[in-house]
Automatic annotation (TrEMBL):
Belongs to the small heat shock protein (HSP20) family. Residues 26-137 form the SHSP domain. PANTHER family: HEAT-SHOCK PROTEIN 20 FAMILY MEMBER (PTHR11527). This is HSP20 family protein. InterPro entries: A-crystallin/Hsp20_dom, HSP20-like_chaperone, Small_HSP. CDD domains: ACD_LpsHSP_like (cd06471).
Amino acid sequence: MFDLMPFRFNDWERKFFPDFFNEEFFNRDIASFRTDISDTGKEYLIEAELPGFDKEDITVEVKEDRLTIAATKESNTEERKDNYLRKERRTGSVMRSFALDGVDRDRIRAEFKNGVLKLALPKAEEVKNPVRRIDIN
């Protein structure tokens, strides 16, 4: 009866609510982080920007054909003055996954420095099938 269609804003919504009905606002991926991926020929390099996180907050896992980078940060603040108490708790986490096609999973290296996680993913050696003659009986 109805087809699935992406949500689009009407012209009047854009005119009267330009800031609220901003497609960029709704399409932002808040639980992610910026990454750069490059191919050096021998390996893939991933540089993930994780400012504000410590090395202990970050996990890098390989499961089946996926590499997952996750980071979680928690902070608690308590302030006491004459007649009030203020407590704040914040928790945030980000995560991204990448396919590991053609990567030697056993030789992946990671380094975290100045808020940037650098991963080196060596390419798997191509298995060349030599020509083999099969005798017929």
